[in-house]
């Protein structure tokens, strides 16, 4: 699928000091990955692995991390930058027993290979780590295990964690109460510049997502979702299926996040000094 990559180069003026270039993939590639949601969680992990490999992440760059207490592993794809500073992008691929788990959270997990593919068109300044977490629905098991395996030195290198959980139900939403102020402000300004819709919607009533173990280690996080008061009932229900996804919203979220990763990479002031 790498051969189908369509690169769109845009120059975006975020402020008077920075012009940001970013790439996106063709809609058909992103949508075909979203449509590959079927199967149990182990089959989903295998599908994601194939997607990463088709996107160019393979060999030593793609690792299955065994998670204690789970049959399924975390899947970790690393895009090495010029330095050792890390931006981590995460989404869980497991799903609840009821429904097909397309919104929660194949929408997030299936974007990981596409975000990697866009970012890998040129070597970034920072290293980007794309993690598909297992066991989120069982109590953030995969993300907790991932963080607990990190050394203090490794944790210190992570300048931001971007968590994607449940996209495509509406326009891009930011879980403001959970997210770092600088990271949130940068995404808002970017959305304005690109004329892509986004807003702040706190969903504290649904519990935590995979950002929580990172927040507990004082790593700045940004949580992106698409839940509203009207769509909360879709979670963990038979209604969570492909039919509820608005792909225009899903693709807008992909475009916004693709550009956002480039902003983080090209505007170091947004990372490192951020604090929750």
Briefly summarize what is shown.
The chain has 276 residues and is of the alpha/beta class.
Salient structural properties:
single chain; 276 residues; two-stranded antiparallel sheet; 33% helix; Aminopeptidase; disordered N terminus; globular; eight-stranded mixed sheet; 19% strand; 9 helices
The tally of strands reads 10
CATH architecture: 3-Layer(aba) Sandwich
* CATH superfamily membership: Zn peptidases
- Parts with pLDDT < 50 across at least 5 consecutive residues: 1-17
- Total of domains: 1
Structural classification: alpha/beta
Task: Name the average pLDDT.
Answer: 90
Range of helix content: 25-40%
Structural notes for this entry:
Helix content is 33%, strand content 19%. The chain has 276 residues and is of the alpha/beta class. The protein has one domain (2-270): Zn peptidases (Aminopeptidase, 3-Layer(aba) Sandwich). Helix 2 runs parallel beside helix 4. The chain is globular. Mean pLDDT is 90; it is low at 1-17.
């Amino acid at each position: 699928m790498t051969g189908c990559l369509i690169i769109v180069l845009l120059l975006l003026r975020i402020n008077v000091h920075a012009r940001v270039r970013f790439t996106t993939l063709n809609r058909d590639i992103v949508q075909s990955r979203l449509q590959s949601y079927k199967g149990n969680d182990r089959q989903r992990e295998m599908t994601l692995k194939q997607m990463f490999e088709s996107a160019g992440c393979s060999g030593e760059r793609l690792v299955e991390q065994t998670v204690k207490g789970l049959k399924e592993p975390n899947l970790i794809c690393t895009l090495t930058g010029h330095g050792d500073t890390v931006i981590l992008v995460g989404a869980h691929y497991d799903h609840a027993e009821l429904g097909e788990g397309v919104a929660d959270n194949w929408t997030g997990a299936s974007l990981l290979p596409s975000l990697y593919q866009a970012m890998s068109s040129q070597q970034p300044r920072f290293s980007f780590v794309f993690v598909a977490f297992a066991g989120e629905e069982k109590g953030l098991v995969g993300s907790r295990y991932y963080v607990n395996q990190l050394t203090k030195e490794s944790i210190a290198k992570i300048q931001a964690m971007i968590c994607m959980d449940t996209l495509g139900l509406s326009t891009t939403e930011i879980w403001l109460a959970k997210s770092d102020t600088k990271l949130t402000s940068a995404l808002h300004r970017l959305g304005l510049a690109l004329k892509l819709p986004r807003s702040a919607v706190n969903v504290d009533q649904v519990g935590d997502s995979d950002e929580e173990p990172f927040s507990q280690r004082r790593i700045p996080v940004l949580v992106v979702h698409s839940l509203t008061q009207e769509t909360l009932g879709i979670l963990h229900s038979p209604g969570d299926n492909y039919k509820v996804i608005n792909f225009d919203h899903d693709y807008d979220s992909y475009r916004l996040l693709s550009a956002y990763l480039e902003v983080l990479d090209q505007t170091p002031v947004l990372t490192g000094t951020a604090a929750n």
